[in-house]
Amino acid sequence: MAYLVQLQKQFDDYRASLFNEGFLDDQFEQLQQLQDESNPDFVVEVVSLFFQDSERLLNELATSLDQQNTDYRKVDAHVHQLKGSSSSIGAQRVQRVCIAFRNFCEEQNTEGCLKCLQQVKHEYTLVKNKLETLFKLERQLLAARGSSFV
Amino acid sequence: MNWFLNNAGIVDTKSGLTLGDGFLPKMCLRWWEKIFKMHHHYYHCIGSKSLRKRWWKRVLGCWIIGWTFASLWIFWYMSSQVSEKRKETLASMCDERARMLQDQFNVSMNHVQAMAILISTFHHAKNPSAIDQRTFARYTERTAFERPLTSGVAYAVRVLHSEREQFEKQQGWTIKRMDTLEKNPVHKDKHAQETPEPSPVQEEYAPVIFAQDTVSHVVSLDMLTGKEDRENVLRARASGKGVLTAPFPLLKTKRLGVILTFAVYKRELLSNATPNERIQATDGYLGGIFDIESLVEKLLQQLASKQIILVNVYDTTNHSDPISMYGSNVTDDGLQHVSSLNFGDPFRKHEMHCRFKHKPPWPWLAITTSFGILVIALLIGYIFHATINRIAKVEDDYHGMMELKKRAEAADVAKSQFLATVSHEIRTPMNGVLGMLHMLMDTDLDVTQQDYVRTAQASGKALVSLINEVLDQAKIESGKLELEAVRFNLRAILDDVLSLFSGKSQEKGIELAVYISDQVPEMLIGDPGRFRQIITNLMGNSIKFTEKGHIFVTVHLVEELINSIDVETETSSKNTLSGFRVADRRLSWTGFRAFSQEGSTCHVSSSSSDHINLIVSVEDTGVGIPPEAQARVFTPFMQVGPSISRTHGGTGIGLSISKCLVGLMNGEINFSSIPKIGSTFTFTAVFTNGCCNSNEYKSQQTNNQPSTSSSEFQGMRAVLVDPRAVRAKVSRYHIERLGIYVQVAPDLNQCMSILNNGNTVVNMILVEQEVWDKDSGGKALAISKSKNDQGISPKLFLLANSIGSPRANAASFGVYAPIVIMKPLRVSMLAASLQRAIGVSNKGNNNPRNGELSRLSLRNLLSGRKILVIDDNNVNLKVAAGALKRYGADVVCEDSGIKAIKLLKPPHNFDACFMDIQMPGMDGFEATKTIRAMEKDFNDRTQHGEVTTAEVCENILNWHVPILAMTADVIQATHEACADAGMDGYVSKPFEAEQLYREVSRFFQFASSNGNI
């Protein structure tokens, strides 16, 4: 029982830290609210979708910016996508970098874009790790709860 | 001559007058024409006031001058007539006098002539003579009356010088001369005493031999020696006629006299005898002395009105020097008349001059008449002047008033506009404030903070509602408020309002009830929002001012009440909803038009068209309105007293708005109120019948939410135990709306007898709290336990008014505790309570209190709907789909605009589409435009009958799938772009329940109310 409480506390603290450090915002909470009995893995599903999507986009961005004649419209569309999906799950630090990224795209500033790409990658990795940790904790918590009920 | 001239003058003036008679009217006519024309002209160029004023002044001047002349003329004319008349009078008087004088003189003269014949007969023809001095004197004395004008008569005989001595001897005196006497007339008296000198020797003599006693002193005087007498004698014997002397002072009397002399001839002479023959034949001379002065006086004295007239008689033989014979010698150039006198002596001429003694009197009549006319004319002129001035002044005032009125109206409009603008401007930011407060409430707040926020929000809401009221007032005043005409369910609206106030009424322990007559149709066409506003206003007031008792809303048809107005006798104070006395509601509608028409026309109108005349009464047992304040109840911002607003709040605008709204609904509002007893507000409103034919009516009824739930209870039976008829009627009305057959029992015993009357199955017993309390539940419980034939005991319900006592009471009864139904009774609430108790519940509606309202309604709205979500972003797609699924929607996801177009090509079975705006390939706007174009094309073809797949379309003639934009930007430009593209609305990306609900409900509710889905 104490373990459960401890686990719960750990989970709550971790979750709070994610919000406090600005990795996540309200939108993530909204997302969690959408999850109910009929759709128990909703958040995980959405987030993993986000991971897939983002990795694809990041790769495409990297190849696009690698080329000699960078197609900025394409880059902008990718960044827009990334921004949209990050805002949808509430990964606000990724979203913020995306906004700056799009500004550089508009200016057709390759250097800035490359710099932003690095930042986005960095932020993405960060939030991915954080979320994965969070989900791991949640799974542990649920497992613990389930065992305690049994 | 003068007289003739005057006459001619009169004729002249008269002809002038007649001329004027013809001339004046013509002139007047012309004048008036001119005035009229100018008037006309004036009205043509109205506004040039100075011109008009000048013109009127001129007319006024002409008027005054004209009438001054006219009155002067009248004066002259009248006075001339008066003087004419005076002249005529004078002439006639003068002529009369002259004729009389002449006549009398002639009489005297004739007599003297007769005497001359007498002398010739008795003195000369006889020898010796028959007449001596004594005889003559006596005779003449006695015949003096015959000669009224003579003072004496004397006879002188012709004596030739040859006969003188013999004559003197015979007579015994010598012939004396007379001229000495005449030369000293002053000493006449003395001369009379002296012996006159003997006459000098002459050829012949005429000594007086006989004389009347009055003139006896002339005896023996020789007439030929007197200058006048000699001339007279000579002329008399030559002419053979009476001859007159010029007037001269008489001997002795010294008065003016005239001597008439007749010659006496020896023989009779022919009338054509020559003067010589006459002289030869002369025997003597008879002279009569006329004392003109006294004689005229005597004559005048005989006549009347001698005092007003002055008479002068002149001898005018010598024209240049007339000798005055009578009358004072007053030379007066005044009016005088001259009549000629003929005394029978052609040689002598006499005239009589008459004049009035007094000066002519002032012609007062003429003066007053003309002056009067002038005054009248001036007065008329003044009246005209005053009238014109007055008219001008009134016109000026009028223009001023018009100006003021315009300004006032403009100010009023400006005020209304200002109010509307300001309220609107306040409302917009207030919405922001309220929204923010709402969001703030959702955040993590401690208890105090939440309390603050709640208070702030409540105040904000109050402010917004106040602003809305003010806006309404302004709209009404500027006439901009228009009523909608949509179908609505009156009962549902009243249930809504009731639920709005139910909390408050339960708190206060007031009984709240609504009764709607069966004859009121289910669906009406009108403005439900405004109707609701009126009801809410009235009920809000009632709740505000009522501390105990009840508030009772009744809705009837006007016709119904007209017909029952005589029958209804429920005025007894006890027979009310709560037993408290109420103000007589019938008093509140006594002044209504609908009732004054005696119902007849009302009936015709209601039966001919489908107008529904509703009469709604809101009755309360509150403090009432003091009589002195009753007059201004409907005046905006007026409250009974300043203390009211302090204790109860409110602006006092509600009733005024209600009155306006009722007016817009062609109704009337009034009230009756008794202080400390209560008020009853009643209003009428005209609606159109919403169920045009019975089929539609039925379908409406089945579609209706309360009716669908009622089907579960259809055919059930209930017994209502309530001693109070009015309340029982209300409860019964609500229960019967569920399709339950209700029997009313005034007490539990009667209820028991109904139950034991085995034929019927009673499913439920509803007991009024009052009865329950009295009974302490014992008997009621016994009843509920009594089983009928099927072994089912009826369910027991308690109709409770306030939260307090019954629940506590009921708790003590444990298992058999009756189910408490809280008043006010409403169909939905009643149905829910009954469902819970009886167990006929439908699953869908089972968890009404789970979650917040919007989420619940969202679920209702979205459940089962097929919704297409388009987003190129998989994550977003997933989130949106998850959100919509959560509310029970059937979601189809696609990731591009092109796919959306493909799916939404009609006919399809999507209820709505959420579309991302920014998408690669085809963005949301473009996709929407294409979809709209397709829909339009399809609709056109459907209308032209080109589409054969009518079954697939499900008779939907007008395809228009609601498309909502999903966007992160909520700026206005995006919103407008959405509208331009044909989108129906937009939601911001992270779905928020309330916003989603607001947007979705806009068209889904519309669609459901249309009965499409």
TrEMBL record, chain B:
Which residues does the UniProt record annotate as the domain Response regulatory? Answer: 717-838, 866-1004
Q: What is its EC number?
A: 2.7.13.3
Q: Which is an annotated GO molecular function term of this record? A: cytokinin receptor activity
Set out the biological process GO terms recorded for this chain's protein.
Answer: cellular response to oxygen-containing compound; cellular response to stress; regulation of meristem development; regulation of seed germination; regulation of shoot system development; response to osmotic stress; response to water deprivation
Question: Which InterPro entries does the entry link to?
Answer: 2C_system_His_kinase, CHASE_dom, CHASE_sf, CheY-like_superfamily, HATPase_C_sf, HATPase_dom, His_kinase_dom, HisK_dim/P_dom
Give the CC-aspect GO terms: endoplasmic reticulum membrane; nucleus
Q: Where in the cell is it found?
A: Endoplasmic reticulum membrane
Transmembrane ranges, per UniProt, are 59-78, 362-384
Residue numbers bearing the 4-aspartylphosphate modification: 916
Q: Which SMART domains match?
A: CHASE, HATPase_c, HisKA, REC
**What is the predominant subcellular site recorded for this chain?**
endoplasmic reticulum
Kinase among the record's keywords? yes
Looking at the record, the residues that make up the CHASE domain are 127-353
Give the domain of life.
Eukaryota
Which reaction equations make up its catalytic activity? ATP + protein L-histidine = ADP + protein N-phospho-L-histidine
Q: Does the keyword Transferase apply?
A: yes
UniProt topology in membrane? Multi-pass membrane protein
- The residue ranges of the Histidine kinase domain are 421-689
The UniProt keyword set, sorted, is: Endoplasmic reticulum, Kinase, Membrane, Phosphoprotein, Receptor, Transferase, Transmembrane, Transmembrane helix
What's the name of the protein?
histidine kinase
Task: Tell me the lineage of the source organism.
Answer: Eukaryota, Viridiplantae, Streptophyta, Embryophyta, Tracheophyta
